[in-house]
Amino acid sequence: MPSAIRLLHPSARDSALRLVREVADFVFASVCAGCGVAGTALCPACAAALVPRPVRVQAGDVPLCAGLAFAGPAAAVLRAIKEDGQTTLIRPLRPALAAAVQTVRAGLGESRSIDVVVPVPTSRAAFRRRGFRLPDALARTTGIPVLRALVPARRIQDQRGLGERERRRNVASALIADRAGAGLTALVVDDVITTGATCAEAARALRAAGFRVVGAVAVAATPRRG
Ligand SMILES: [Zn+2]
């Protein structure tokens, strides 16, 4: 009796086999994005390290909050998403972002409403390289309407390797809101807060367009030295 696979046209059989092999590779080659242990995409210890411990950062007059310190498994998972495109790892970061949103909201006093979340725009080069925009994907997990109101006003140099003052200069007037805020309360969303310069610039651009910016949130923030 012919097996099902022998009934397939040779080219269809080849592509079926290729698919199975790809799936098998994925399953067997899977290592924990947090620590590299084999056999799982995220081991229990690293998953536990993603339990939120909100971190506040002050940058100018914008309250910034991140769900985790950018260190250890949290940093490794964010790198795996951004550099290796492991977008399934966005899901375990949801509680960290939610905790950051909750912390900002708790500081708002009586009126705790946030009308929209506005993702920090991703450079066109980064979008081409990754095929997705992490701040947008994260913003969609908050349950608050997402408004992509910010666009780059000019080219921004890669922030890596820049100090705090250089970062501030690099992003000064780098963003622009492409619609009027009309008094909407907005919360800025980014993936990682390093010095807070990008979030502060996002807040400035939104305020200039008439948004009421209540703060900025990220999954993780670089611990401050000194
Ligand atoms: Zn692990």
Structure description:
There is one protein chain. By secondary structure, the protein is an alpha/beta fold. The protein has one domain: Rossmann fold, CATH 3.40.50. Helix content is 39%, strand content 19%. The protein has nine helices and seven strands; from the N terminus they run H-H-H-E-E-H-H-E-H-H-E-H-E-E-H-E. A five-stranded mixed sheet has the order 1-2-7-6-3, sandwiched between helices. It has a two-stranded antiparallel ribbon with strand order 4-5. Strand 6 (185-193), helix 9 and strand 7 (212-221) form a beta-alpha-beta unit. The longest helix has 19 residues, at 10-28. The chain is globular. Bound molecules: zinc ion (ZN). Residues 32, 34-35, 37, 43, 45-46 line the site of zinc ion.
Can you summarize this structure?
The protein is of the alpha/beta class and 226 residues long.
Overall helicity = 25-40%
- As a percent range, the share of strand residues is 15-25%
Number of domains: 1
The run of helices and strands is HHHEEHHEHHEHEEHE
CATH topology: Rossmann fold
| Major beta sheet summary | 5 strands, mixed
Distance between the termini: 74 Å
